[in-house]
Design brief:
- The chain is an all-alpha fold and 97 residues long.
- The protein has a single domain, classed as Tetratricopeptide repeat domain (Serine Threonine Protein Phosphatase 5, Tetratricopeptide repeat, Alpha Horseshoe), CATH 1.25.40.
- Helices cover 68% and strands 0% of the residues.
- Helix 3 runs antiparallel to helix 4.
- The N and C termini lie far apart (32 Å).
- The N terminus is likely disordered.
Length: 97
């Protein structure tokens, strides 16, 4: 499990984080991907993309309970159109939109 160190700042640029998410989810390492994406939402709390990515990781894992709030948070941050479409797609799928 990945842990946030107090000695080392969290330096997660969004683009590599998204690439890492795709790689980790593709390898069925969902728990590790979720931990990385949680760190991204802490570091970039106003990033709709970070929240959407975390929601997607939860959705892929089958964790609807945690996915829905992430997608709603993403939509509340005025996301770019592609992120908005993705969040809405998942919320509709879960019957939460």
């Amino acid at each position: 499990m990945l842990r946030k160190s107090k000695k080392v700042p969290c330096l997660l640029p969004m683009k590599p984080t998204t690439q890492l998410r795709v790689q980790m989810l593709g390898q069925s390492e969902q728990d590790n991907a979720i931990e990385v994406l949680k760190l991204a939402t802490e570091r970039f709390s106003k990033s709709a993309s970070a929240w959407d990515s975390l929601g997607e990781a939860y959705a892929i894992k089958g964790d609807q309970k945690n996915a829905i709030p992430c997608f709603k948070k993403s939509l509340g941050l005025s996301p770019p159109e592609n992120v908005k479409i993705n969040s809405k797609k998942y919320l509709k799928h879960f019957g939460a939109f």
